[in-house]
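User: Please fill in residues for this 401-position structure.
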């Protein structure tokens, strides 16, 4: 639809791009920008109030040359997307190699933001061995995706179909204040298939995932940290899973190669089945879980920790040394008592997502003020929760809001 391409020599970005009030429908890609050589793409890019619908490959994408983890450079810099809608970009069923059917994809970006944007009903005809997803980034540094909505994204072959993602070679980036629901794949993904130490220092906080992993791919959970991922903080999120796919997906999925994953003050709920699933019996240095709530609304729940499944928080804590802070037991297994709806959501645009009536803790909830003091543990808590309510630093509520 609209393509901006830079083939200048390395280090020659083109400055000042403003794209506003564009509707792109029926193309291969709605809007695309990027560069051929290292550091040669575009800077000070602003994309606002655009609707990118019914395209094949992506609604919006940026890109750059092959990433070099030993000397990282980024084609594009200072990229700001807001109020972008990417919908019904279904993918190319004839392309079995490269991912297609994405909503919004930032590739090769340093210092980027996606805010108040929506991705829905993308990817249903993708048949490649990777992708697609609603809103995600790869080969990037210092990207913030916030206050956005991703729902009912699909995949044609049970691969991905995710809501949000920080994909390979992404560092110092944040997913925050986002709502994901009814996607085929995971709600929030941190992933790398490359063991090059370039996927590191990312944060997932104050997000809500509702009834994700609809296609039953048990590789995923509502939140998933999979592959060679280092030093990711996952805190103050709310994940509500529901069966309907068999077997039921976990609220949190952890892969065998993760290192330095900190999981704190989250609500993990399901109707029955595994709440947390780790491919390997992870040591606390690989993944440390503290101050979370684990709850099943209907049947018995479990924690699958490598080859062993535990049916109670104390049993898992004793064997794994998880849910312990300064030698004392942490974590809860109680009904969070959230205001509904927490399933069957109807929000259709990001401007509505922050105003959802569900997921707020009712008066008397045991999770009110029950969270850990994250700042004292080395995390960087936000000043407000998902709903915009001021958070106590020392005694925050558990969950996103």
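Assistant: Residues filled in for all 401 positions:
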């Amino acid at each position: 639809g609209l393509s901006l391409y830079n083939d200048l020599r390395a280090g020659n970005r083109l400055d000042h791009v403003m794209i506003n009030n564009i509707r792109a429908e029926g193309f291969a890609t709605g809007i695309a920008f990027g560069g051929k050589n290292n550091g040669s793409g575009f800077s000070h890019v602003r994309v606002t109030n655009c609707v990118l619908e019914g395209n094949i490959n992506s609604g919006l994408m940026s890109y750059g040359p092959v990433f070099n983890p030993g000397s990282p450079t980024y084609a594009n810099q200072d990229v700001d997307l807001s109020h972008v809608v990417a919908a019904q970009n279904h993918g190319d069923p004839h392309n079995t190699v490269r991912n297609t059917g994405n909503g919004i994809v930032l590739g090769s970006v340093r210092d980027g933001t996606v805010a108040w944007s929506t991705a829905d009903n993308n990817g249903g005809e993708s048949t490649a061995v990777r992708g697609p997803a609603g809103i995600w980034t790869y080969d990037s540094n210092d990207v913030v995706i916030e206050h956005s909505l991703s729902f009912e994204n699909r995949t044609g072959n049970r691969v991905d179909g995710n809501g949000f993602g920080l994909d390979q070679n992404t560092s110092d980036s944040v997913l925050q204040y986002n709502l994901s629901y009814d996607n085929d794949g995971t709600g929030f993904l941190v992933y790398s298939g490359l063991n090059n130490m370039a996927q590191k220092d990312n944060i997932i906080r104050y997000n809500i995932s509702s009834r994700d992993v609809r296609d039953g791919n048990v590789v995923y959970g509502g939140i998933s940290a999979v592959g060679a991922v280092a030093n990711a903080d996952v805190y103050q999120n709310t994940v509500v899973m529901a069966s309907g796919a068999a077997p039921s997906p976990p609220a949190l999925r952890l892969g065998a190669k993760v290192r330095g994953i900190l999981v704190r003050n989250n609500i993990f709920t399901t109707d029955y089945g595994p709440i947390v699933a780790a491919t390997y019996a992870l040591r606390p240095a690989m993944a440390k879980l503290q101050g979370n709530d684990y709850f099943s609304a209907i049947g018995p729940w479990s924690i699958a920790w490598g080859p062993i499944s535990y049916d109670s928080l104390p049993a898992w804590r004793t064997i794994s040394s998880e849910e312990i802070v300064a030698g004392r037991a942490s974590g809860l297994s109680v009904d969070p008592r959230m205001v509904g709806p927490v399933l069957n959501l109807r929000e259709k645009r990001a401007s509505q997502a922050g105003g959802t009536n569900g997921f707020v803790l009712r008066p008397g909830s045991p999770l009110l003020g029950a969270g850990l003091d994250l700042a004292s543990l080395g995390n960087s808590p936000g000043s407000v929760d998902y709903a915009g309510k001021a958070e106590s630093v020392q005694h925050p509520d558990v969950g996103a809001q």
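For context: Residues 99 and 131 are 5 Å apart (CA to CA).
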